[in-house]
Amino acid sequence: MILESIFLGLVQGLTEWLPISSSGHLVIAQELLKIEVPLLFDVMLHFGTVLAVFAFFWKDILKILKSLFKLDFKSQDGKLGLYIIIGNIPVALAGYFLHDVFESLFSNLFVVGIALIVTGILLFLTKFTKGRRKLNVFDSILVGIAQTFALIPGLSRSGSTISTGLFRGLDKESIFKFSFLLAVPAVIGGNLLELNQTLGEVDLLPMVVGTVTAAIVGYLSLKFLFKTLQKGKFYLFSVYCWFVGVILLLLI
Predict the structure, then answer these.
(1) What residues are paired with 170 via a beta bridge?
(2) β-pair partners for 133
(3) Is-contact 234 228, C-beta < 8 A?
(4) Alpha-carbon dihedral sign for residues 165, 170, 171, 175
(5) Which of 11, 20, 67, 142 can bridge 77 by disulfide, Cβ–Cβ 3.0-4.6 Å?
(6) CB of 208 closer than 8 Å to CB of 172
(7) pLDDT tens digits, one per residue of 25-80
(8) Which domain, by its residues, includes 144?
(9) Do 140 and 80 meet the contact criterion of CB atoms below 8 Å apart?
(10) Do the Cβ atoms of 18 and 237 come closer than 8 Å?
């Protein structure tokens, strides 16, 4: 069980933040590899990757919280905090009202395969973008809508949000930071919604091992993705998405 926990933590850490769809890989693991874990274990793996975001952006998060506490929406940090709130409204509404619709897609490998191919197309098109602008309210809404579509398994959250920002002409650092700070409330809120279901029993040690693994690998994945984005190589992830998507469609 320890080795399986490390494997699941590794997969979660790699796929949650890299633009290759963690939800899509979760469906593949469950349907093809027959790997099933208790709900609480899955939630803790997501918690591990959220910890990675806190570790990576802790200075930015403290500045944002300080500005929001002071109700300061004129500073850059205050504006960013406001944009994060606005950007999460679409996914909050969709998650609450359409939860069953999106959940039903998690047993559909055809949807996952097509969504991975679509993700690949989005990623590849970023090759032709040149961003220099900073984020504004309209950008936050569009990126938030892109995050909502990523509730479809196989459609990468980071892939769709970063791509949308790049298509809008945002500079790489701005959209990278916004994409992952935007994810924190969404991931936490989504997991809290899932916890309304029966948690079931889970062994403590494997859960801790899986969570720590997901946190460490998630942090390294963020660093790798940022460097890849800075070098203008973000589009290269499209090859992996196309490969997995096509293979999946051929297998079903």
Answers:
(1) 133
(2) 170
(3) yes
(4) negative
(5) 67
(6) no
(7) 877 876 777 777 676 777 788 889 999 999 999 999 999 999 999 999 889 999 99
(8) 2-251
(9) no
(10) yes
Number of independent structural domains in the chain: 1
What DSSP string describes the chain? -HHHHHHHHHHHHHHHHSTT-HHHHHHHHHHTS-----HHHHHHHHHHHHHHHHHHSHHHHHHHHHHHHTT--SSHHHHHHHHHHHHTHHHHHHHHHSHHHHHHGGG-HHHHHHHHHHHHHHHHHGGG----BPP-HHHHHHHHHHHHHTTSTTS-HHHHHHHHHHHTTB-HHHHHHHHHHHHHHHHHHHHHHHTTS------HHHHHHHHHHHHHHHHHHHHHHHHHHHTT-GGGHHHHHHHHHHHHHHH-
Whose tokens are 């509730």? That residue is 151
Place of tokens 């097509």: 114
Tell me the per-residue pLDDT of 183-238, one tens digit each, with 9 for 90 and over. Answer: 999 888 877 766 665 555 567 888 899 999 999 999 999 999 999 999 999 999 99
∠ CA(39), CA(8), CA(104), 5° rounding?
Answer: 45
């850059």: which residue's tokens? 76
Q: How far apart are CA 84 and CA 4, in angstroms?
A: 35
CA distance 22 to 129: 25
Q: Please give the model's pTM, rounded to 2 decimal places.
A: 0.92
Q: Would you say 183 and 158 are in contact if contact means Cβ atoms under 8 Å apart?
A: yes
